[in-house]
Specification:
Elements lengths: L1 E5 L13 H15 L3 E6 L8 E4 L14 H14 L6 E4 L6 H4 L6 E4 L10 H6 L4 E4 L12 E5 L19 E6 L6 H11 L3 E6 L5 H8 L8 E3 L5 H9 L3 E4 L9 H8 L4 E4 L4 H4 L6 E4 L2 H8 L7 H11 L2 H32 L1 H10 L1
Parallel strand pairs: 1-2, 1-4, 2-3, 4-5, 5-6, 6-7, 8-9, 8-11, 9-10, 11-12, 12-13
Helix pairs in contact: 1-12, 5-10
Length: 367
């Protein structure tokens, strides 16, 4: 199959540090290449891939100091895709709704994975207007705010099986990986660690949008002797960081669409203590791959029960549900469905024209 993967340009593919969407695009692209599909990746020029790379900007925009308007580069990228769209059997976008006006009448099968939060009121008119655009969710809970969207299915993220190896949790600390932001629950993670009197290591980035929150609400908490702020870590560092942890804390307070860090921890055999919100009940098997809780108090209690969990079972559940090969195969199933729907639609349209000579004649005059 000739497949185009269109990634956001904010990070390289794969990202050098933090980056969820671009990392998923990388794992999917490389797995499809491994399965001998003909894949083209539209991404920043500092990306590394086994696919053909078409770049619309030299480097990822988040770390590009002189980038003021990232949208400009994404518009260039959309035109790059349109210019060679005829080369592909399907276009797979990971750029939210940006391409909808460009691809609505393109005549090529397309599908879009929605990676972000969808409970924003401003999105309603978009998905009311573009109801026919085929979209894919990354969890079933993600779909709830947009029942009118043309959902083709849900595909959970996946990691290469050999990316992380199981650890033994002998580091004696709890781990937090992600962003310093209110919705990720960093303050709650710190409270859980201090209450349980267990060290917490934080590997996280601070976006400019969250800088004020960090300075006002979090920075002073990092001075506690049980808390260690490690900054951003790369993919290789995550194996030891999470594998040596007693558990990963995931005390979110928003409807997380997926939560990549949960399956990264599972790949390391590390159980997850997560608040019951968003995708969490779909990803974590309560009392098997971790504990699903509803408060700081319940999280502290769950820490005392970690010895009841088998780290090998945590890893086993990862291998059953969240590998890159499983993710790619699920996407391929949807690709085939979208292509078949597209071909059926074209055939139906052609038959209608044959049955209505006036329409055919009118079309001829226009041409």
């Amino acid at each position: 199959m000739r497949i185009a993967q269109i990634a956001p340009l904010y990070e390289a593919v794969p990202p050098k540090l933090y980056g969820g969407t671009e990392r998923v695009v990388h794992y999917l692209t490389e797995q499809l290449v491994k399965q001998e599909h003909e894949v083209t990746l539209f991404a920043s020029g500092d990306s590394h891939t086994g696919a053909r790379l078409i770049k619309s900007v030299e480097s990822g925009l988040r770390l590009k100091a002189d980038c003021i308007d990232p949208l400009a580069y994404h518009i260039v990228q959309m035109q790059d895709v349109i210019d060679c769209a005829h080369e592909f059997d399907i276009l797979h976008f990971h750029t939210d709704y940006l391409h909808f006006p460009f691809t609505k009448n393109l005549g090529i099968p397309i599908v879009t994975t929605l990676h972000g939060r969808l409970d924003i009121p401003d999105l309603q008119p978009i998905y009311n207007k573009f109801r026919s655009q085929p979209v894919i969710s990354i969890s079933k809970s993600q779909q709830k705010p947009l029942p009118q969207a043309n959902w083709m299915g849900t595909v959970y993220h996946g990691l290469p099986e050999g990316l992380h190896k199981p650890g033994n949790g002998n580091g004696g600390y709890l781990a937090f990986v992600g962003r310093i932001s209110p919705e990720k629950g960093i303050a709650q993670a710190i409270e859980i660690a201090i209450t349980s009197q267990i060290p917490l290591k934080i590997a996280a980035k601070i976006d400019n949008a969250d800088r004020e929150y960090y300075e006002a609400s979090i920075k002073h908490l990092l001075k506690h002797p049980l808390i260690e702020f490690c900054g951003e870590i790369n993919e290789e560092q995550k194996t030891d960081f999470m594998g040596n942890a007693l558990a990963l804390l995931f005390p979110i307070n928003w409807a997380e669409p997926f939560g990549m860090v949960m399956i990264e921890a599972m790949a390391c055999g590390t159980p997850v203590i997560a608040f019951d919100a968003g995708s969490v009940p779909e990803i974590i098997d309560d009392k098997q791959s971790g504990f699903i809780v509803s408060s700081v108090k319940e999280a502290v209690t769950a820490i005392s029960k970690l010895s009841q969990l088998s780290r090998s079972k945590v890893r086993e559940l990862f291998e059953e549900r969240f590998t890159a090969s499983r993710m790619a195969n699920n996407y391929l199933g949807i690709y085939n469905s979208v292509i078949n729907n597209h071909q059926s639609g074209k055939a139906q349209s052609f038959n209608i024209k044959l049955q209505h000579p006036d329409l055919l004649a009118f079309s001829g005059k226009e041409n």
